[in-house]
Fold these 3 entries.
Entry 1:
Amino acid sequence: MGRPLIGITTNHSDREKEVRLSRYYVEAVAAAGGLPVLLPPVREQEIITDYLERIDGLLLSGGGDIDPLIYGEDPLPENGRLDPLRDNFELELVKRALERELSILGICKGCQVLNIAFGGSLYQDLYRQKSAVLKHVQEAPRWYPTHRVRIEADSHLYRIVRQELIEVNSIHHQAIKEVSPCFKVAAYSADGVIEAIEKKEGAFVLGVQWHPECLWQDSKENFNIFKEFIEQCRE
Ligand SMILES: [Mn+2]
């Protein structure tokens, strides 16, 4: 088998009718041995089916906030810009990818999409809703880690990074509140914020709240996340 085909979801602007993705994701997937392709959000169910028939793995990229109505809450003032087309597309894509036992890596918003797709919820704004939190919206370059996360010992993530503590970047004002019953927590920051989740059984499905695609060049642990994901997509 050649390189596994990795579908990467994209950002999208309704106003400018543009699809956008940071090249970080493309470069990380390619460096780890995958063949990156972009999946622009669409409404058509049959296109979603066709995407899923062709890709070997799914990478959910970062982005804005998920519409809180989807997890049963009205929006707080801090809730950011919404993208209904992208939300609907990604939630449908994820549910059906899981039925097909595809391997999935969710990054930042992607981690939150995984949790919401299977019945979890989010803090709409960590600083307002959770006391004594660390700085999770870093004012440092994206390639620079600013806080640590503790990896749960019995997790797949631990077997990937083989370290109890790793340093990560942090560019999120939201985080997982209630974890979906399909997932377990794989990492926390020191303030108790959930920084990674993974599926309890079945296919490889990992969500990380940080951005390993900006760290892998200087961090073996973060590169290993991509390598393991691509490896799982070969199976
Ligand atoms: Mn963080």
Note: The longest strand covers residues 183-189.
Entry 2:
Amino acid sequence: MVLAAQVDIGDEYLAQPEEELCARIAGRKRELGDRLLILGHHYQQDAVYQFADATGDSLKLARFAAEAHDRRYIVFCGVHFMAESADILTADDQIVILPDLRAGCPMADMASREEVEWAWRELAGVADGRVIPVTYVNSSALLKDFVGNQGGSVCTSSNAERVLTWALARGEKVFFFPDEHLGRNSAYALGIPDDEVVLWRRGEKLGGNSAEQLRRAKVILWNGYCTVHMQFKAEHVAMWRAKAPGVRVIVHPECRHEVVRAADQYGSTEGIIKAVSGSPAGSIWAIGTEVNLVNRLKHQYPDKQIHSLSPFQCLCSTMYRIKPAYLLWVLDHLARGEVVNRITVPAEVAAGAKVALDRMLTI
Ligand code: SF4
């Protein structure tokens, strides 16, 4: 699917002070009332996040979208693949909107349908037994459609281990896309030996493996990664342990395996929020995930010491594209009865993708 380009919204929006934009967004929200649902991912900046009717990680937001039968417009403050999932899970007469079409996910772009189909055919030529494909929700609808049609499922960072267990009960091997690290961390948590987990490098014959390695493998990982979570290093964990005795280190499973191993615990964004909110006053946390979420936790829990694990700003620059000016721009159009930036997944792609998403929601 080719994404339409984001149009220039002009100085009428871009040159306005944030305070004024926010006041106008609040007015439009009141005007659109129950016809509108704004969904906000935890990595959104506060200026946008404050307007969300429901907030969460990918899984939670997918569920909100699926259950919002009474809302005509769903404005998704997140990235493109999330808006696609919302469109797949909602009725045809519901309209899903992404405020800025440039808000994609670099990790999702690392596994195109064509590349995966090519790899699938190569693997089928050497592997014995059934291979079950599993795709992280951070992937295009086209890839989810492929996975749905091949008997596989979507997973999120909250349920990857459960979905992997489900898949291994149905086949001899799992082909996991696009995030190597979520796949490796989940396989490790399930006790799958390292020599049964192999990496499929895009562009290399048999993914850079021998036929024997692939025959022996239980889990085959695509070599995609999140540019934000790759910035956390094992030495950051060591640094915090030396600097703040008693610190608890919690990281997202998109982090490298050595970072997850060095941390005290790992979890999805929802899991991180739960761990921090449930900890006693005075707790010290070093958190390895996107900085907007870490800063929000810091403000929400002033009785705890909350730090980013990395000394550098780990910001998701594509999430950050959703700014108040773009949110107001789409709401202004809706108030005039016009729809801009609609995300539509063609019916023939949505069918297989929905099968894969529904499998995840029931596993
Ligand atoms: S944080 Fe990483 S995985 Fe999430 S949207 Fe940004 S680049 Fe993609």
Note: The two ends are 28 Å apart (CA to CA).
Entry 3:
Amino acid sequence: MALSPPAYAWLDGRIVPWDACVLHARAPGGFWGANVFEGIRGYWSEDDAQLYAFRVGDHLDRLGRSMKCMRMTVPWPARELAQACLELLRANEFRTDVHVTVTAYFELAETFDPMSYTEKAGVHITAVPAPSVAGRAEHGVHVCVSSWRRIGDDTMPPRIKTGANYQNSRLAHQEAVRNGFDTALFLNQRGTLAEGPGSCLVVVREGELLTPPGTSGVLEGITVASVADITARELGLPLRRREIDRTELYVADEAFLCGTMHELMPIVSVDRLLIGDGRPGPLTRRIHQRYLQAVHGDPAYRHWVTPTYQQQKVDA
Ligand SMILES: Cc1ncc(COP(=O)(O)O)c(C=O)c1O
């Protein structure tokens, strides 16, 4: 179904009409994917008539780390970019769940040579309606281990959220879909599990909660860090970061993908082998429920969300 675009985007310091948010065709930020970006969700809470942006500050901190690795600087500090995200959401008057991307990109160098160093970098921010995928999580997803390996820190660092990395992700995801799976999981260069094309992996085995560490070829995920906080705080269950073998996943009790877009998505089979009894596991469901409450402004996790609209003063 074709969706109509929102009215506005944000480009290099100002709100512009959606169609005016464009880069030059030869800007390396576009044609080489020489950019770094963040995907941030906003959740509409009907009860509070509020749109809560989730962990905006943490996303912009990670954008800063990605920029550092790319030797990129932009004229707007993280604080201003956070404000720009909220300003854009307000301008579009969203009253629905949204997905915001903040992208810092390299502009055309004076020499036009995309390989040459340039200090010219800009930022664009776009936001589109993106309903929560919680409904899909009722059934979970069937995944395969990809024939494509995850990129490595010595080639295209997966720790950085750069657009170019997602060619690797697209190859794996689309191959998986062509072969009848919902998505894929990558092995890293050492042959242990890394992550999905756009999400981290968590495995439950014998009461332990495990995830591959940052050195396994994964993005340092904000959702997985949120899961770690929730389980430590509410269940006294730490999330252990260690390498995970492919066959450990085959014999796991539960597993789930987690990421901004996927939220918590139970994995119900891998390579056509059922995980547990082939249904979303009880621990996964419990953590997922708390995660959804947190992103919608649950008081215990209020420090993670930023309200977009001015809050009405309520007289006691
Ligand atoms: C490759 C990859 N891994 C992991 C994640 C999960 O990261 P986060 O939870 O910060 O969205 C994402 C999503 O952005 C991703 O693209």
Note: The chain has seven helices and 15 strands.
